[in-house]
Amino acid sequence: MNNKDYLNDFNLQRNNYIDQLKNGQNNILVAIRCRPLNQREIEKSEYEVVRILDERVVVLIDPYYESNQNDVLRKNRNKEMQFAFDYAFDETISQVEIYEKTSNFLLDGVIEGFNATVFAYGATGAGKTYTMVGSPDNPGIMSRTMNQLYYLIQQNSNQNHFVVRVSYLEIYNENIKDLLSIEDKNLDLREDPSQGVVVAGITEIECSSTQEIMALLKVGNRNRTKEATEANEASSRSHAVLQVQVEIKQLEQGPQEEVKYSKLSMVDLAGSERAANTSNRGLRMIEGAKINQSLLCLGNCIQALSQIQEKKNSNLFVPYRGSKLTRLLKDSLGGNCRTVMIANVSPSVLTFEDTYNTLNYANRAKNIKTNVVRNILNVENHLNNYAQIIQNLRQENEQLKRQLSDKQGINLPPINQGSDYEQIQNESLNKLEKIIQKHFQLELDIQKSQQDVDFQIDKINGLIFQSLQDPSNDKDIVKDKIDSFKQNLKSLMQQKEDYTNKYINLIDKRNDLLTQIKQANLSLSNNNYIMSVYKQAQVQTESIEIQYREKKSDNQSKHKEQQVQFLQQQIKLRDGVINDWKNIIQEGKLKNKIIYKNLKNVEDVADFARLNHSTITNQSIIQNGSPVNTSLQHSPKRRVQSQISVHPKMYPNQQQKISQYHLPTRKNQLSLQQGSDTNLPDSYSAHSKSSKGNRQNQNYSPANFQPNYNLLKARQQQLYLQRNQKFLKQQEKKYFN
């Protein structure tokens, strides 16, 4: 067989394969695209290790073959590795050819209710984004697919009614983000029994032309996360998924309506990379780890699905839940979907291992089979909808007659000219519009009243707080004010509760409005109009409520700031009072410890108990003009048992028993040295005990008495020492008890 016959046979097999894929009876279509060397690779004099043969075979040359001959473990390694795919494109292939050979045939099934997916796989810098998105001058698969889709919709618009909705998302660090929304929030995946895996809360925009979708693509690509690495100056750091949902309805409706819907997904995956090759650090390294994690899970799913087909064992586990990417592509890989995988590779010798891994995954994906089923929803029309169906048919007939009369110049009478159907429709429309406006006006009035009550409550709370904060106010006056404020608050809270109940009842009545709209059997245009009026009023009410909540939140924040400042002042005052009491207590403790400060042993205590004070000397007391020299002396010492018990823990340095020391008598006896110049009576002596009889025998009289100031001073010191002894006993009891 010559090369020409071989190519013809291959093309025939490929065409049969595509026909089988259209019918849902074949595997995933896998194509390989090899890009040319870029300028940086050319400057480094790198050579190519990838060869494409006959648009089907990929030959990978091992650059380490010569060095492996000396390695025992790698000696038998092949110099060339060959892979066969459905398509293999070299660097000369154009964007148009890529689209026509891989994705164009999918669109015929999309408008018939079959799901389809096209995704690009490969390492960083291999050309995935260029294949899917392209450039302004040379667009990729996404834009060309949208052009062809709307072309087919226009061709079939006479038989079916098409509705196209578009969503655009990215998976960045295992978080799903909406690229068409200004809100930067993470979305969740949900399992739908009819639609499969769906993204909850994603923005779906209805588009009527390719230009609208391309404008959305530009917005989404600007929001997509891109960063520069050494492998790629504009490296995509996330997986981008463009989903186009198509709903197909027949124009000729009967008792049973057939609705077909399909989903076209186009995925631009982030590139697998190695940190050593890209020199990523910090956040870029974390991004690379998340990318590799999701791509590894994708590879595991491909491998598991391939083994299911090879071993004919459907019980093998497929780890779809390993990442958000594989959950989103669950139907595309092994479910109800026609899938095309475009594996992008680089011919450079430096990316040999990445290219080898990509070819291995693509080779496994060839074996995956999908089960494609047309998505059809049968809807039974109620008899009440027949009026709408008849009206639509009449409008269609009017349009056809108008077109015919324009072409032939014949004026045909309108169909059912005397019908009052339009009048009934207009009356129902006006009635519903008034009901909706009245309902939402009531909601606005109640909202306004509720807001006024809330502001009054906040104002009264602020006045109460100010009254409590001002220290100059009289307590009785403040109490009266607070009681008055509380009475006002009680009535306001009751009003607020009433308004809240009324508002909740009005919210519940919205369902009644929707029921009335549904039962009115309006035409499609009138129904769309009345629903737009309803949604506009609803949005207006919700926007006012949001503004009120923001304003209330600001007021609450200010009130909390005032409370925080007041509490900080209170804490400051509290700390000052605590410090003052600490100082007072500390001073009291120091005074209590002064007595014991210098008493280190029992001898000191005994000396202190014997009134071992300094002797009063050189005191001159003038009495009757004559000086008196006196000196205070101790009474004769005598051994007595100590009346003071000293605890050993309090004075651990005691060396002798306290009973060995002399203590003073219970009554101190004072000795007074009498000199020649004393004026005291001779009968008065410090060693004698005065008695009434003695005074009488000595002819004592008050006129002859002269006070002894030294004796008085000594008595004061004696009383002082007695108080100290009493204080010592109290402190010992307090300390040891």
UniProtKB/TrEMBL annotation:
ATP binds at residues 122-129. One of its GO terms (cellular component) is microtubule. It comes from Tetrahymena thermophila (strain SB210). Keywords: ATP-binding, Coiled coil, Microtubule, Motor protein, Nucleotide-binding. PROSITE patterns: KINESIN_MOTOR_1 (PS00411), KINESIN_MOTOR_2 (PS50067). Residues 622-642, 672-706 are annotated as: Disordered. Belongs to the TRAFAC class myosin-kinesin ATPase superfamily. Kinesin family. The keyword GTP-binding does not apply. Residues 376-410, 475-509 form a coiled coil. Pfam families: Kinesin (PF00225). PANTHER family: CENTROMERE PROTEIN E, KINESIN-LIKE PROTEIN KIF19 ISOFORM X1. GO terms for biological process: microtubule-based movement. GO terms for molecular function: ATP binding; microtubule binding; microtubule motor activity. Residues 27-368 form the Kinesin motor domain. This is Kinesin-like protein. Residues 622-634 have a biased composition (Polar residues). The keyword ATP-binding applies.
